Structure prediction request, 1426 residues.
Amino acid sequence: MHFVMMHAPLTAIEAETAARSRAAAIAVELSAAAVTFGQGERAVAALQATELRIPDGEFVALVGPSGCGKSTILKLAAGLVRPSAGVVVVGGREVAAKALRIGMAFQNPTMLPWLTIEQNVMLPLKIVEPYRSQFRRQRKASFRDKAHALLAQVGLTGFATRYPWQLSGGMLQRANLCRALIHEPRLLLLDEPFGALDQFTREELWSILQDLWLVHRPTVLLVTHDLREAGFLANRICVMSARPGRIIDDSAVAFARPRTIAMTFEPDFVALNQRLRDLITDARRAAPAPSEA
Amino acid sequence: MHFVMMHAPLTAIEAETAARSRAAAIAVELSAAAVTFGQGERAVAALQATELRIPDGEFVALVGPSGCGKSTILKLAAGLVRPSAGVVVVGGREVAAKALRIGMAFQNPTMLPWLTIEQNVMLPLKIVEPYRSQFRRQRKASFRDKAHALLAQVGLTGFATRYPWQLSGGMLQRANLCRALIHEPRLLLLDEPFGALDQFTREELWSILQDLWLVHRPTVLLVTHDLREAGFLANRICVMSARPGRIIDDSAVAFARPRTIAMTFEPDFVALNQRLRDLITDARRAAPAPSEA
Amino acid sequence: MPRPEIRQKLASAGLIVLFFVGWEVFCVVSGMSDLILPRPSQVFVTLVQRLPVLWPHIVQTLVTTMIGFILGVALGILLGALIGVSKTAYDTVYPLLIGFSSIPKVAVVPIFVLWFGSGTVPAVLTALAICFFPIVVNIATGLATTEPELEDVLKALGASKFDILWNVGLPRTMPFFFASLKVAITYAFVGTVLAETVASNRGIGNVMMSASSNFNVPLLFAGLFILAALGVALYVAFSLIEARVTGWATRRNDLAAAA
Amino acid sequence: MPRPEIRQKLASAGLIVLFFVGWEVFCVVSGMSDLILPRPSQVFVTLVQRLPVLWPHIVQTLVTTMIGFILGVALGILLGALIGVSKTAYDTVYPLLIGFSSIPKVAVVPIFVLWFGSGTVPAVLTALAICFFPIVVNIATGLATTEPELEDVLKALGASKFDILWNVGLPRTMPFFFASLKVAITYAFVGTVLAETVASNRGIGNVMMSASSNFNVPLLFAGLFILAALGVALYVAFSLIEARVTGWATRRNDLAAAA
Amino acid sequence: RADEVKIKFTLGWKTQGSDAAFFYAKDKGYFKDEGLDVVIDQGEGSGATVTRIMSGAYDAGFGDVNAIIQNASAKPDEAPVMVYMMWNRPPFAVVSKTASGIAGPKDLEGRTLGGAQGTPTTRLLTVFARTNGLDMEKIKLSNMAPNLQEPMLIKGDIDAALVFNITSYFNLVLNRQDPDKDFKWLTFGDYGLDLYSNGVMVSRKLLASNPKAVAGLVRAINKATIAIAKDQNAGMAAVVNFDNLVNEPVEKRRLQYSFDKLIISPEMKEIGIGDVKDDRMARAIGIVVEGYQLARAPKPEEIFSRQFLPPRTERDLVYVAN
Ligand SMILES: Nc1ncnc2c1ncn2[C@@H]1O[C@H](COP(=O)(O)OP(=O)(O)OP(=O)(O)O)[C@@H](O)[C@H]1O
Ligand SMILES: Nc1ncnc2c1ncn2[C@@H]1O[C@H](COP(=O)(O)OP(=O)(O)OP(=O)(O)O)[C@@H](O)[C@H]1O
Ligand SMILES: [Mg+2]
Ligand SMILES: [Mg+2]
Prediction:
């Protein structure tokens, strides 16, 4: 199964070269970034001073207990939340979206309810340059083909002209993924993009995502609860402590690419999983009660 | 960890007895139930003629590929969707909620945004008898304690007076579960209640749910993508085909209760999982394109 | 299922007819003087008899109202968007508008007349002045209550404030925009008629003024009926557009699934 | 962070003052006759000088308006809920209300006067009649656009239609209810004043009518200013309640997180 | 007191100096002396007084006799009856700027006239035109609210306005004009339209059910009118007592104007205040019937009843400006 990328600005080889030349650059950098929501007594510390540096073109998975601040880190990177302390630099600038083309799949697939699935998926093309200017100039039909091809890949053929409320939870999540990918972003922020899917659909999408990454080498930050998923997809896995979160472990995943599902049953892989499990178990132990934080 | 059930109308032993005497009764019955959404060309067949009979007090897990109609079956049982063909009988009547006290955890944790978490969780007590009448008569404080105890069990101490948008995805899902449980329903409809949680939180909640079921023996219909979860919790696992869905396999799970996490790594358990995996793989193959359905 | 739908429509029409029958009966039974409240049958007879004479007035009022209304809608959207987006505008423009809106427009009509002469222009301005406020309020509220999650979808893409307004704020606000249109169009008619009674030689307002000074109450009520009918006609037109544009917001699957 | 907030408020107040200064300058520069548009300073002077005389009229108008407004709100919620919940009501009551709303209320005041005599009662009724419609529309629209998912939460529990209305429909509609209150209160003032100009010996409407027939334009404008001020005062009161009740809907985290 | 007869009385317009008699009668207890409890409300126009009484909302009021004629034509059993004629001379007039050179009716041709719809002056314009041989085709009529007539006249949007002289005169004063020097007044009464105008009217119901009360009402008003003819300051005190927002100097002048220009006439001096001459009334009815194209000409006794008037000796009015 191959990822369909029409009108891709670069061939696969060109992309590889480009990726290598950018390799030294830092795509996302959090320095002592902390986030506290609310004020005074009711404040919730979501993120402790967090250090995270993601070089351009890397695939990083973020795992950790529920409520530890994973989504908050993604929102920091997307510029949707400002750090209450520390600095967040994306693509060399503090304003994320102006610096890098960002694709984000939110944890809750918030589709705009007045748009069909296809229109929702095409939304980034309406907003982000260079597609934006083309969108106005009759390129709409070819963009629609692009959207349909993506939707077909995730198994949503025939649902393009439905409205979001006509889709099941898992189907929405797949459409959400399409919306994050359609404009070939350089920074991909994925918040549990496969959570509501059955194992098989999930594994299929892993492969699609891996292929995509191998060709275009975007920087990817993936939040997941599935350690197999993290191991299969990522170059690096960051483990977070319980809220207020902080990165307590950062390990490289060395398995060769392209990885296969079979690989995930190999002893090395299982050992990695086990190590992560233990780390998270420890992390959860230390969870303080929220209001007393 | 023990499930806190204050003001439970029955002791555990009484409940056991009651459960046995009701054993023969059918809690949920779908006879040739089919659901088609929409009309004419745009119709989507969500569910083929489906047969499902769940005796009172049973714990049934429902697994199947994304979009196959699992949530639709739950909505049929809750009386939120009417079958376009066939009959749905719940607690001996066609109008579900009037016959049985129902607790439902929706796939998307739709909390009412103007209520705090605690108020959201207490909502069923405001609506469902016998709590409803007590709610008006100063029992509010004890009800609040009950809500707090439940929230504490799922690790949400201190978030009771927050608003839904102040919680992370996983935290919302846990609150959602509390709302389904608080009024001690006789029929529990759970739609992927642990989907957004990390493995550890998830396993903890499995145990809580199992304990609860052992004591009160409600009828449970659980939709899940996690085969380990299905095997750990259910008496019976129903496997559905791809959309339009239909139950293609219905197997009993014989492991002794109470089950432990360790048990899920035993060969018998792994074999069951493997069998289910194979069934679903076959089921997915046959998925037709939606609009051509 | 066309059967129940038709029955539904018939029942509704029946109830409306019943309303007029009730009015008729009330007038007859209570011996109400037709100087105060004529019987609807009287009004209808007058209406039919005088229709040829009334026609140019109807056209005049309708055209004037539509112009004022369209301008009012444009102004309303503009100000509503401004207030919904900018805190400063919320704090300054809102109170000024509330103040202006609390003023009976009949007091400003003379100013319009003295500036622009009597006739269509003051009527258009009065219609505009009276009808834009509900639109402002609903657009502003719609924008202020737009879920940040929906906006975040665009913000993450680096969308400008205007992009967000255009792609999220305004579409989300549509149901309430249409709600305010219903209010605005009725008030626009009131505004036009008001101005016509103050200074104009044509229009329903003028007819009503002359009917009232002739003690011709059935004709006065015929004018009112025409206004009501125009209001309802435009309401129906908007409803059709509304159903297309805001269908997403009013989907109702209450227990209904059957094809 | 009280600093920027205060600066914000000051900027807003400054802009409002600027508006009046602009008006003053316009009048002076254009040599506008104060018989058409008086300078705000003239109006303020008149206002201060005549306040003792005006006071009972202000109280009269305020009380009348408040009674009419409260009744109008109650009626509006009732009808809005009816229309939002029942298809038949939607098809019958809505067109009738639209029709009624398109009618200038000045035409129905004489009917009220006949039935209830001149004075406070017709003014209350006129205020009511003119102000309830925006509430009906917004409540009905709010109910019609309530997400079925939210209702399903209660439906699964076997809640009655009324339970759903009370626990989901109405709370969800609150932001738009408050929006409509802003419109309604201003129209309630207009209604009261209208009735007072037609049939009453007291109230701001009466003052304005007498000022206008005496060409005492500064006094007329003083009346307008009083109305505007009353409207704004009530708006502020509602805003405070609104902020408490509908805070959930207007949460804004635009990039703001810092404690 | 419980045995007092309650009478709801509507004025012809907002509080004006020319209404002083009613307030004076109330303040001095003249009504009370007659066993009446009179409640005075401001009005909507001297024509509307008729409808207000016909609708049953009011028992009596100060309004235009020509409006009675108009309504009595179609509804003789409902129309109120005039029982006390106050304004012996009609206030209907055409006012124009002296500078515009309108010296007589003929000069109105080719001009734009501003009229408030429904006012007698506007409605009688056709009769005025016919009587004076004008071609209505050549006169352009523009409708506007009464309070716009003078500003539009001053601004030059219209060449002349169809007005009540008693209203318009003071509107011009309030608009800082000199109504005597800069404006030319063509009064209808001087050009063949010899109509009566405002007086006290009562409902048929009151007339039938309580003639004593009507007589008392008329007696009290008559007494007050004669009193303030001698002392306008006392009359103004009553006006201010009713409505403290009035412009006292202007209203006093208006009160005096009403005596000067509308009440005092040779005829009034002959027959006394309150009464009419039947032949003149019949002529006036003829003019109104023609002007409004009424289906039926009511008889004078349907319109005016002199049975409640005090004896002639009590109706001698002597006006002394002070
Ligand atoms: N807008 C907000 N206002 C207040 N608190 C918030 C807000 N958003 C998140 N939080 C709090 O911040 C903490 C971290 O939230 P976050 O969504 O980042 O968690 P997460 O790691 O993504 O969890 P999950 O795996 O459950 O999605 C939580 O305790 C949550 O309550
Ligand atoms: N309200 C609706 N209108 C139209 N189609 C609908 C509606 N709800 C569900 N469907 C369709 O019915 C089918 C089954 O949906 P359902 O939500 O039951 O799937 P599911 O098995 O729960 O899937 P998932 O695992 O992804 O949640 C889907 O194809 C969906 O598109
Ligand atoms: Mg999250
Ligand atoms: Mg589902």
User: Anything to note?
Assistant: The pocket of magnesium ion (ligand 3) is lined by residues A 70-71, 107, 191; B 168-169 (CB under 6 Å). DSSP finds ten helices and no strands in chain D. Chain D has one domain: 50-258.
